[in-house]
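Hey, resending since the last one bounced:
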Amino acid sequence: MMKTTARARLLRTWLALLLLLAASAGSAWLPIGPALLPVSVLIALAKAALIGWVFMDLRERQPLLRLAAAVGLLALLLLGTLSLVDLAVRRDEPVPWQEPAVLARPDFSASMPH
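The structure tokens again:
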């Protein structure tokens, strides 16, 4: 049987994840403009930290395993940051547009046996 303290910890974590889910869904409806992205990322990081700390038991693992998890998270953060920088500095250059050609309908009746 699971200890009462472990069950209570899992229940608290589950409730915290539900609150973060509600915050994530609710923030989509708030008219906060460009601040929505950082708020959403912070909520997602909080959810990931809770899952890693409680459900993956990173708080009880060896330091090398925690370091590996941190390196993976930092790599993901670096890729996200580089994507946002690319999006911020990219110029929107229109490309020339050419109307698609209208092709004649192929006539397959000549190749079909009668």
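The first helix runs from residue 4 to 27.

Sorry for the duplicate.
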